[in-house]
Amino acid sequence: MSPYTDEHWMTMALSLAQEAGALGEVPVGAVLVSDDAILGRGFNRSISSCDPTAHAEILALRDAGHRLGNHRIVGATLYVTLEPCVMCAGALVHARIKRLVFAASEPKAGAICSQCAVLDMPHLNHQVLWEKGVCADAASQQLSDFFRVRRAAKKALKAQDG
């Protein structure tokens, strides 16, 4: 039995999300874990890297793949602060991730249970188990705070120009 809980790992993902927010990126963080060891980490970098695929989940998968020397990351659990999009859900299947744990739901683009159920499609060649809601309040607050500050800055800039 692991001494670490889902909350432990999600707290690490929330810390990575905070790093993303500090850089002006949407605050999403991800930690990929197997056998109580971190295989990969990532936080959103789409804006700063000018890369639409630089989502936290993808970067954590890339980190793990490089460390392991393999594109398959069998048996691992990905902890991410926001429900993955279609692209990220597909990447989890291709990487053969065993389990996904996410904090906050994404009502606009969530591809696990909010807008569609990519991981539950029976025709896929790999099934990823998933769980939602671990540290959801903290993740939701982090996102709300980020967008509130962002909207206020835009409003101030607009008032200054107008």
Instruction: Sketch the topology as an H/E string, one letter per element.
Output: HEEHHEHEEH
Query: Quick one: how many beta strands?
Result: 5
Q: Major sheet: order of its strands?
A: 2-1-3-4-5
Arithmetic mean of pLDDT: 96
Describe this structure in words.
This protein has about 160 residues and is an alpha/beta fold. Helices cover about 45% and strands about 20% of the residues. It has 5 helices and 5 strands. It has helices spanning about 5-20, 45-50, 55-70, 85-95, 135-160, and strands spanning about 30-35, 35-45, 75-80, 100-105, 130. A 5-stranded mixed sheet has the order 2-1-3-4-5. Strand 3 (about 75-80), helix 4 and strand 4 form a beta-alpha-beta unit. Helix 1 runs parallel beside helix 5. It starts with 5 loop residues before the first helix and ends with a helix. The model has no long low-confidence stretch (mean pLDDT about 95).
Summarize the structure.
With 162 residues, this protein is of the alpha/beta class. The protein is built from five helices and five strands.
Q: What are the defining features of this structure?
A:
162 residues; alpha/beta; five-stranded mixed sheet; 5 helices; 5 strands; 18% strand; globular
